[in-house]
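Before a colleague's protein record goes any further, I have to sign it off. Alongside the sequence sits a line of tokens, each denoting a local backbone shape. I want your independent view on whether this chain really folds as the tokens say. Where you disagree with what is written, explain briefly why. This is what I was given:
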Amino acid sequence: MFAQVKITEWQPIETAPHDGTAVLGYTPERNGYVASQNFEIIHWSGWGGGVWENVSGYKPTCRFTHWMPLPEPPLGSNN
């Protein structure tokens, strides 16, 4: 059995999976607003030659610079 390594640090966006896996993306372009939205759940889509999309299918115009895996759901969660 192989030990699984969990990534808990931010990684450069270039190392993010391009297989449709949802990840937490970070962009510095949204810093400084009252309701800062510099973190977003995104996945790589093959649409238009390849682009990051959020969970609603929207293609953000900001540039994501880092990513990390989403956390595991809470223990005992049925969802």
Summary: The chain has no helices and five strands. The CA atoms of residues 42 and 54 lie 4 Å apart. The radius of gyration is 14 Å. The mean pLDDT is 83.
